[in-house]
Amino acid sequence: MKSDRRQFIRELLHWGIATSALGASFSPAILAQTIKQTPITKAIPASGELLPVIGMGTSRTFDIGADAAMLAQLAQVLNAFLDNGGSLIDSSPMYGSAEETVGYLTSNLKTEQKIFTATKVWTSGHQEGIDQMQASMRKMRVDRFDLMQIHNLVDWQTHLKTLNAWKAEGKIRYTGITTSHGRDHDELAGILRKHKFDFVQLSYNIEDRAVERQLLPLAQDRGIAVLVNRPFQRGGLFGSTRGKPLPSWAAEIGCRSWGQFFLKYAVSHPAVTCAIPATSKVHHMLDNMGANFGGLPDSKMRSEMEAYFQQV
Ligand SMILES: NC(=O)c1ccc[n+]([C@@H]2O[C@H](COP(=O)([O-])OP(=O)(O)OC[C@H]3O[C@@H](n4cnc5c(N)ncnc54)[C@H](OP(=O)(O)O)[C@@H]3O)[C@@H](O)[C@H]2O)c1
Question: What is the pTM of this model?
Fold first, then answer.
């Protein structure tokens, strides 16, 4: 344990991180939080395995290159996530250095909690897909992925064969496919009707509810787990609610902030398994992880949330 920590310090110093920053990344105020409650979980339909409803995205936020100060900051972000019952981390080769940042931090931080690693294949061609997924394994420092997703349907016919073969070989545990912000919904629905996937990832939030029409009911019918990307509309939801009060009844569903309000809305849809908000800030991560605990709104409360949001 001690030598692991020394090795981690050496690696951080190699990246140019000052020991004061390292001290901050292990700050008891952030890190010594114990999980006082049990996270809200939902079952992956394909297996029954339980996932905490709040995961973590890495687009833009973890694409930091060799920025040492940001690496120290993201060490704190990751700790805040894991210390509050987080498990699923979503990345992609599309996100610059994000996979490397995740691999570096997760392989060095000590946690007893299991991390559910998810990334994507985002290229065309059989061998190109294999090469990219193998590179992702090296970057994220894992010898198998929990979830491998086909990013934005790119060459999905080719990669689906590889994903199924890799699943049979135990290199990945679950298969998935992704889209975002309304793109390719009809084509994706056609694919999900004909082919077996364990997960689908799509954009869903209180402002962008297009997937309620087709994709969410389909996922529910077909027993496909749903990951929600852009639960904050890429941060845009905070623009419309800045300075506006939460409804008095938000406390009934354990929401103390707009971030928690938006996340609880997204994950309370019966088809949704887990939302993957992204942040580069510790206080935002702590805020977001508040939605990992307490109750969830029922359908009546969800309607009230929609009505309240529309008039703010
Ligand atoms: N096609 C695909 O497969 C696809 C497409 C889009 C996204 N994704 C995945 O989904 C993840 C999430 O989507 P996203 O990153 O586009 O958007 P998002 O999670 O809806 O929004 C992220 C933005 O919200 C801000 N934020 C986070 N928590 C906050 C809080 N508590 N209070 C105020 N602001 C907060 C972040 O800024 P700060 O850093 O300042 O906190 C960031 O600018 C991505 O990272 C990626 O992993 C996948």
Answer: 0.90
Is 50 exceeded by the pLDDT of residue 24?
no
What is residue 51's predicted lDDT score, i.e. its pLDDT? 98
Q: What spacing in Å lies between the alpha carbon of 63 and ligand 1's midpoint?
A: 13
Residues 12 and 122 in one domain: no
Total domain count for the chain?
2
Out of 159, 281, 283, 286, give the residue to mutate to test ligand 1, the one with the largest number of ligand atoms within 8 Å of its CB. Answer: 281
Residue 99 alpha carbon to ligand 1 centre in Å: 16
Q: Are 295 and 74 in contact (CB under 8 A)?
A: no
Band (pLDDT 50/70/90 cuts) for residue 198 is: very high
- What number of helices (H) and strands (E) belong to the chain? 13, 10
Report the separation in Å between the CA atom of 265 and the middle of ligand 1, taken as the mean of its atom positions: 16
- Asked if 122 and 46 sit in the same domain, the reply is yes
| DSSP alpha helix (H) spans, 141-255 | 156-169, 185-194, 215-222, 236-241
